[in-house]
Write a structure and sequence with these properties.
Helices cover 27% and strands 21% of the residues. It is an alpha/beta fold and 457 residues long. It has a 5-stranded mixed beta barrel. A 5-stranded parallel beta sheet has the order 11-15-14-12-13.
Length: 457
């Protein structure tokens, strides 16, 4: 080895070292988890996502990124609030989005879960808890007649997406900064709520407010999820703008004012709705399982808007809110207004999952001759599935084998990945994306016959 080669290698190593130092470390916990927990090495905290029992793999969402973990059902321990018969049953019992802690080992860049702990319901003494029925009664009276102070202690970003009527937002992480906003009367009923049975923010707020000498504080343990299953929430014009328009989050806005009035000025994207025609609206409305956020707008945020919103809740929609102050409040806030003809039908297209490719684009590429495709079609199904048919020219690597067969994958070409349902394809996407591959995945179901022809559901 000559001196020039040696110097080159040393410089390259130094650059790699600097790059590793400069790269920000990946968070081991979702931001909301860090409110109440610290995460020790070899552990991750986040929200349970996709589960692929066929390949002994699951996916954990940590804010905007995903971790893919393998497991051995013979050695994995799973702790859930309700005991299950075996490991697979326990994993299936964890709902998508549920907070979990995962302990893992790591070898050659692959994480293997050894313990999964699903977060249990918080424990609140009976004397410190308040029921949904009592909260409903008080909210119907209002703070003055009901003599209460209702606090949403979730982060502001969640509060802006919709809250229980009459609630004020005093986030638990900023409790000490907002003490001056608490009632002066330490005997007044204060009700805290947050994100539901497993959320520690309202019990944490309860402990803090008791330490300040307040003697009549309660926790609505079931929180916003229980309220949303039974009643519409509310949001202000500023919240609607910040939580949805500014973030480009898809939603449905129903304007129930008379057409002649609404056409003179309405919120962008609004659908004109006759409150008397709710049956017709629901017959064409986006399905409840899509979970569309819905905001109902009338002139002042009054009873008609509440009635329409409640009808939607009764029909199974859980993300329904009424615009506080109605369209007049939107105008008073000097927010954008459009004129003309309102849409006549509600359409909702969920925001695509990160890394997904549309069925239309996948089909366009897959129907090209293999030699002329601008991307590689990667099939990560198991051999017992691919023997029934593969897309012509597709590269087949079962998802569990990806790390040992990386040499077969091009780094200089786009990869479109699929399985049969989209679950294993998404796992493969996150695994390969983190390793620098230009990859997308098909998020839906695909059926392939022996001839190579396919249909996407």
């Amino acid at each position: 080895m000559n001196s020039r080669t040696l110097i080159t290698l040393v410089l390259a190593a130094a650059c790699l070292s600097l790059g590793a130092k400069d790269a920000p470390p990946k968070a081991a916990s979702a931001k909301i988890c860090t409110t109440c927990h610290t995460t020790s090495p070899g552990n991750l905290r986040g929200n349970f996502d996709n589960l692929a029992l066929k390949t002994s793999t699951f996916q954990l969402r940590i804010d905007d990124r995903f971790e893919v973990l393998r497991f051995d059902k013979a050695s994995l321990k799973v702790i859930t609030p309700e005991p299950a018969g075996d490991v697979e049953a326990a994993l299936r019992s964890i709902a998508k989005g549920h907070e979990v802690r995962v302990q893992f080992t790591e070898k050659d860049g692959e994480k293997t879960a050894v313990l999964v702990v699903a977060k249990s319901p918080v424990k609140v003494a009976e004397k410190d808890a308040i029921s949904l029925e009592e909260v409903q009664r008080l909210v119907a009276l209002g703070p003055d007649k009901g003599h209460y102070f209702l606090v949403d202690c979730r982060p502001a970003s969640r509060f802006m997406e919709g809250a229980i009527p009459t609630a004020v937002n005093l986030p638990f992480p900023a409790f000490d900064k907002n003490v001056d906003q608490l009632p002066g009367d330490r005997k007044k009923l204060i009700i805290y709520y947050c994100s539901g049975k497993t959320c520690n923010m309202s019990p944490g707020s309860l402990q803090k407010v008791k330490a300040l000498g307040y003697t009549n504080a309660k926790v609505f343990v079931d929180g916003m999820p229980a309220w949303a299953r039974n009643h519409p929430g509310v949001l202000s014009p500023a919240s609607l703008m910040a939580a949805y328009f500014d973030t480009q989050t898809p939603l449905v806005i129903l304007d129930i004012r008379p057409v002649t009035l609404a056409s003179q000025g309405f919120i962008k994207g609004s659908v004109g709705v006759d409150p008397a025609g709710m049956a017709d609206l629901l017959s064409t409305f986006p399905a409840p399982n899509l979970k569309p956020p819905v905001v109902v707008v009338d002139e002042t945020g009054g009873e008609k808007a509440q009635a329409v919103a409640l009808d939607l809740v009764k029909a199974g929609y859980t993300g329904v809110n009424v615009l506080t102050g109605g369209f007049r409040a939107w105008q008073a806030a000097a927010l954008p207004v459009e004129t003309g003809t309102l849409a006549s039908r509600a359409v909702f297209v969920p925001r695509p999952r990160p890394g997904s490719v549309s069925p239309k684009e996948f089909t366009r590429v897959a129907l090209l001759a293999p030699a002329s495709r601008p991307a590689v079609i990667l099939d990560v199904r198991d051999p017992d599935e691919t023997k029934g048919g593969i897309i012509k020219g597709a590269l087949t690597i079962p998802q569990p084998q990806l790390l040992t067969r990386l040499a077969e994958l091009p780094k200089d070409k786009r990869i479109l990945c699929h399985c049969s349902t989209g679950i294993r394809a998404e796992l493969a996407y996150h695994l390969l994306k983190n390793m620098g591959y230009d990859i997308q995945f098909l998020p839906g179901d695909i059926t392939i016959v022996e001839s190579g022809e396919f249909t996407i559901d």
